[in-house]
Design goal:
It is built from 3 helices and no strands. It is mainly alpha-helical.
C-alpha cells in the first residue's frame, strides 16, 4: 500500500485510505501498525501538498536581531 501511495496511484485517496483504515482492526499487530504508519505518511503528504506554496517563506532562517 505504501508503494501505491508513493506512486500516487489514481483514486488511492479513496479506496486506499479506506483499506488502510480497515487494516487498523486486523488481528495482527504488525499489519495494524504498518497500516498506521502508511496512513501517517499519507497525512504528511497531504499536508505538504496543501501548504507547500507557503513553506518557502517559513523555511528561511530568522535574522539574528542582536
Amino acid at each position: 500500500m505504501r508503494v501505491l501511495l508513493r506512486a500516487k496511484m489514481h483514486g488511492f485517496s479513496g479506496w486506499g485510505i479506506e483499506r488502510l483504515v480497515g487494516q487498523l482492526y486486523d488481528q495482527s499487530l504488525s499489519v495494524a501498525m504498518t497500516a498506521l504508519t502508511v496512513l501517517e505518511e499519507a497525512c504528511e503528504l497531504k499536508v505538504r501538498a496543501v501548504f507547500s506554496p507557503f513553506w518557502g517563506y517559513r523555511q528561511r532562517p530568522l535574522k539574528n536581531e542582536n
